[in-house]
């Protein structure tokens, strides 16, 4: 199984701490040796680092760990290949332009029969189920809306229905970004946490690293982190409800509405 | 004016030497301070590094200079902004999927009235003339061919005609890649050199660095480098003929046919 990591915040925030935990699972504390990738949104633009080599050994991963790239929206993935060989074009996150926006997706799971679905506008470059599913999701949104739609409950319900369709074909745990919103869907396993004032200390599970968020934040910061498995062992992570799309903006859960 | 750098080879080759020369022009020997980017193809996949900061100061640029990423096809760009503000989404190379292939383009020049042209499939994410022109070129190719066509003289003549149209709107010096082919077009200024056995020494213009290619190549290697201005001062660079598309594959000029 691959592992996912997403971040969404109301102020540009670096993800060095969480990424350091995740990347250990790509060759040290975990066996996800078949590549890794991370996408940072900066405004409407994206910056993606990826490698088909194990993350724990990658020089590019060292740069990302050490270099505090600040972003409000991050999507990341470490890969344990099951479908599609190990190569750069099969490395997540995948990226496409839709409505003049940069959309990215990282996925974990297998989707039986996904490649029988017809594609219209978007076509995979690599051979993974995941990229095919991403193309299909974008195709569906593009056929529904010719121009960039306002993101409302109606938009999210339709996206959720498409993700439910994928989920029925196997396992669909995924993170998606469009520059503003972070979308998270779990058919099996995904955890999230929102950090806000009063901030405290957090301790990584996969490496002996502790950070005191109080020292690096202001009282107004809201930062949500989503991961396949909790990254810290002294905080309360919440399981993402299965078959339910979660949408975050500026660190805050927008959908579903909390009762 | 921005500066372009492209490389096409028959064996995976690192571009550290040429990139070291180019990146000096982004803040040291030149004033192209408004960002830089470089795309490496690896198989069908691409890996892009970019930054809105001056290249000579960028930590990501340091990584690219030092880390020998080997590729048969590279497109790179350093930016001096004239249209479109300095931000990540306006940083070249731009990238889109067409026919399940990853297409990239870097451009220098301004194109008056480009934004009056109608776009169908591809839409710009940023605000540059360059990305708009790229979307228009891809639109034209996509409308001509529903599926990935064989690249022949006929294909290249039509692409050249589209580039001539752009050239008439201002200045269109550009490099484009599709995973296999490197396309170069100059309406003003672009130089190229093909290095093959017997290899010799080359000395950068912009930094005191000399490389002996004999030590890092085999007799079968063919490597073409294209740049806005020659990068070395002890080799013979050839000027790209204006309004003529040049197409390279495996380091060798495919189009126009040399008589």
Structure characteristics:
homodimer, 259 residues, alpha+beta, six-stranded antiparallel beta sheet, seven-stranded antiparallel beta sheet, Glutamine Phosphoribosylpyrophosphate, subunit 1, domain 1, 33% strand
Can you list the strand order of the major beta sheet of chain A?
3-2-4-1-12-9-13
Number of domains of chain A: 1
**Distance between termini of chain A?**
33 Å
Q: Rg of chain A, please?
A: 17 Å
- Low-confidence stretches of chain A at least 5 residues in length (pLDDT < 50)? none
Helix content of chain A: 10-25%
* Mean pLDDT figure of chain A: 93
- Structural category of chain A is alpha+beta
Shape of chain A: globular
- Determine the oligomeric state from the structure: homodimer
Top CATH class of chain A: Alpha Beta
Number of helices of chain A: 4
Helices and strands of chain A, in N-to-C order? EHEEHEEEHHEEEEEEEEE
Instruction: Report the β-strand fraction of chain A as a percent range.
Output: 25-35%
Summarize the biggest pleated sheet of chain A.
7 strands, antiparallel
CATH architecture of chain A: 4-Layer Sandwich
